[in-house]
């Protein structure tokens, strides 16, 4: 048995449920009997109808939310509060508008106690990797949406997260910039081999990036099916969408996901 095979998975959600109490005192189940395993170095994508419970799943992994039942484990241990091994990327970037690009990227290492010169050298290295060496003294408002996303990625990867949680990180970008960011992300991921959970509404994005795609049911979310994506790596995201194998994956998974999207839409229409 190899060493890799003996390691605990990066993330385990075991029969997790999560309930919320509404302002009127009604109890609402967001997740029900939800189980998911992300192995070390694996890229998992999560798709499901709007409002089904995708972000709640990530919040449980971060420790920001606790399960009402079941168990969440990271690297074989229970989740206990915010974990420094976990990095995040959300739809809204978290850049400080009053700090320059380099100061934004240095902020993480400085916070973790690195010396200023060390943090600066690290930040320069990461900004070079994402193609922003010429912009280190710019401020966020002087950058395009795609450039801000790159700063965000540098800001996340500089902390060398072992687990990376991404909640629709590229949904605000135009289609071409998204594709560039997909390539950028896969390149950084291949170098660092973090374990990723990537939440998205976009099935093609999920198939292009992931090793495994989880399809969730209309809320309360539970795992409806898991698809292993056996497309070879490294993947060229701008070209992969024209390959038959990619199209076949998308069709199959969409047939499955569509039923949940329709259920969710029907419920929303009935409630209106
Ligand atoms: N803090 C909270 N208090 C009460 N209800 C909540 C809370 N957080 C989430 N919910 C509810 O739980 C359900 C799942 O929400 P969640 O944000 O996880 O869904 P999602 O799949 O990420 O949504 P979207 O696709 O729109 O981004 C929703 O009905 C939401 O209203």
UniProtKB/TrEMBL annotation:
Residues 11-243 form the ABC transporter domain. This is NitT/TauT family transport system ATP-binding protein. Pfam families: ABC_tran (PF00005). GO terms for molecular function: ATP binding; ATP hydrolysis activity. Belongs to the ABC transporter superfamily. InterPro entries: AAA+_ATPase, ABC_transporter-like_ATP-bd, ABC_transporter-like_CS, ABC_transporter_ATP-bind, P-loop_NTPase. Keywords: ATP-binding, Nucleotide-binding, Transport. The keyword Transport applies. It comes from Rhizobium mongolense USDA 1844. PANTHER family: ALIPHATIC SULFONATES IMPORT ATP-BINDING PROTEIN SSUB, TAURINE IMPORT ATP-BINDING PROTEIN-RELATED.
